[in-house]
Hints:
Blueprint: H1 10-22, H2 25-47, H3 51-62, H4 65-70, H5 77-96, H6 101-119, H7 126-140, H8 147-160, H9 163-167, H10 172-187, H11 197-204, E1 206-208, E2 216-218, H12 224-242
Antiparallel strand pairs: 1-2
Helix pairs in contact: 1-2, 2-3, 2-5, 5-6, 6-7, 6-8
Amino acid sequence: xxxxxxxxxxxxxxxxxxxxxxxxxxxxxxxxxxxxxxxxxxxxxxxxxxxxxxxxxxxxxxxxxxxxxxxxxxxxxxxxxxxxxxxxxxxxxxxxxxxxxxxxxxxxxxxxxxxxxxxxxxxxxxxxxxxxxxxxxxxxxxxxxxxxxxxxxxxxxxxxxxxxxxxxxxxxxxxxxxxxxxxxxxxxxxxxxxxxxxxxxxxxxxxxxxxxxxxxxxxxxxxxxxxxxxxxxxxxxxxxxxxxxxxxxxxxxxxxx
Length: 257
C-alpha cells in the first residue's frame, strides 16, 4: 500500500481500519460489497413493485463480474459506489418527503454527508457531476434552495476527512495548497487518453492501455449486460429529449453507477 497524496484519505482510512480490526483489507471490501447490494435493493424497491422483477434486478447487479471482482480486492471503487448509492437514496427520500421541514432535515443532512464522503474517496471533482444531477432533481421539484445546505455539508464533510492533517499542526492555508497540488497533479499529467475506447469496452469488451506500446486486450469482466445497460441509458435519454422532458429521479444517476 502507498500513501498516494493525490487521492483523498477516506477510502484509505476505511481499508486501514479493516486491516487493523479484521486482519486484512479484503474483509472490508466484502462488507462494502454487501452494503452496496443492500443499498441497491432499497433503490430497486422504490421503483419496481413486482417482487420477481426486484429479485431479477438485484441478481443482475450482484452477479456482474466487475462488481464481484471488486468484492475481494481493496480498491477505491466499491467505497465510492456505496457512498453514491447512499446519496441517491437520501436525495430520493428528500424529494419524496412532503412533510414539514423538520422531517426533511435528516435526509437533507445525510445527502450532504454522503456527497462529501463520495468526494473524499477518489477524485473530489467528480462530486460536481453528481451535484449537477442533484440540482436538476431539486429544481424540478421546486426545492432548489435545498441544494445550498447540501453543498455546505458536503464541503464540511470533505474537510473533516483531513482532521488528522490538521491535528499534526498543518493550517487551513497549507491544506488549500495541498488541494491545489492535487488539481495540478491531474491537470499536468502527461498520460493521454485513447479516445473511443469507452465504446469499444462497452460494446465489445476490448480495451487498449495508455502506454505507447500497449496492445488491444480483452476485458475479462465484460459481459453483454454492459452493452444492454448502456443502450438502455441512451434509449431513456433520447426518449426524454424527443418528448422535451428533463429526466428526474434515479434516471439522472444511472450513467454514474
